[in-house]
Design brief:
alpha/beta; Rossmann fold; Helicase, Ruva Protein, domain 3; 2 domains; five-stranded parallel β-sheet; 11 strands; ATPase_AAA-3; AAA+_ATPase; ATP binding
């Protein structure tokens, strides 16, 4: 079954690569989130392909795609939907909002008010929407790809820690390399390759692959290694709030998914190391002194990984 997961992952990565050039590692992380049934926060400048990436992923998995442009006047019902009175039938009816999809792009999520942001919390965590006492399940798989612009902070509402913790990963796409940008110009010269992108898997196949990832073997010493990294964030003098148990579990499941995508039925310490920053960096809060000194979460996590003993195989 693991070979099936690896083959699925390779198909999706190659398919998205027909549109997004040179960002296979980013696509791999989004695939990790899909297999873990988690969500992704993309923090990057405008124009690097966040929307195109979301559309390409949705088409590759054969899923529905919806986009919400977050603005200060956006209401919670604009996301979840609402119940209205149909005068023709004389009954109340539910009109589903854009959250009822497989891949939801929450564009510039930090521009909406906290009340509207919180409307996504139940959907992200429970994969349900409750309206007027009725709980409605969302389609599966369900992936929220939320974007933030780190440059413009005027008129924004920073995401609260409770909502940041709901995101499995926080990633950066980054600018393309010179050769990749030239290749992009050639590829987009006559047409948009996204228009011709076809699905390479199905939502049902993706869900089966997600279930298979849970069987990936993790050594007891490696479980201790993951837990020790999380505990080290709670003891570090430059960190005011360390990683929660939800973050520890997220790192564990992401390592399983990454191993499966790479064709292994066991997790390596390198899998964990590679995922520490995208899984944990947005889950810690630095102390005021650390922020004044210009330190960031990535640097501190690198220090922690260097200090925690890596489990080695006994000969």
């Amino acid at each position: 079954m693991i070979s099936t997961v690896a083959a699925l992952g390779q198909r999706v990565i190659e398919n998205v690569g027909r549109v997004i050039i040179g960002k296979d590692a980013v696509t791999e992380l989004i695939l990790v989130a899909l297999l873990c049934e988690g969500h992704v926060l993309i923090e990057d400048v405008p124009g690097v392909g966040k929307t195109t990436l979301a559309r390409a992923v949705a088409r590759s998995i054969g899923g529905q795609f919806r986009r919400i442009q977050f603005t200060p006047d956006l209401l919670p019902s604009d996301i979840t939907g609402l119940t209205f009175f149909n005068q023709r039938t004389g009954e109340f009816q539910f009109r589903a909002g854009p959250v009822f999809t497989n891949v939801l792009l929450a564009d510039e999520i930090n521009r909406a008010t906290p009340r509207t942001q919180s409307a996504l919390l139940e959907a992200m965590q429970e994969r349900t929407v409750t309206i007027e006492g009725e709980t409605i399940p969302l389609p599966r798989p369900f992936l929220v790809l939320a974007t933030e612009n780190p440059v413009e902070i005027e008129g924004t509402f920073p995401l609260p820690e409770a909502q940041l913790d709901r995101f499995l990963l926080r990633i950066v796409i980054g600018y393309p390399e010179p050769a990749e940008e030239v290749a992009m110009l050639a590829r987009f010269q006559e047409r948009n390759p996204l228009d011709e992108l076809e699905p390479v898997t199905t939502p049902e196949e993706l869900l089966r692959a997600a279930a298979a990832c849970r069987s990936i073997y993790v050594e007891d010493d490696l479980r201790w290694y993951i837990a020790e990294i999380a505990r080290a964030t709670r003891r570090h003098e430059a960190i005011e709030l360390g990683v929660s148990p939800r973050g520890t579990l997220a790192l564990f499941h992401c390592a399983q998914a990454l191993a499966a995508i790479r064709g292994r039925d066991f997790v390596l310490p390198d899998d964990v190391k590679e995922l520490v920053t995208p899984v944990l960096a947005h889950r810690i809060i630095l102390s005021p002194e650390a922020r004044l000194r210009g330190r960031d979460a990535r640097q501190l996590l690198e220090e922690i990984v260097e200090t925690v003993n890596v489990p080695v195989e006994q000969l």
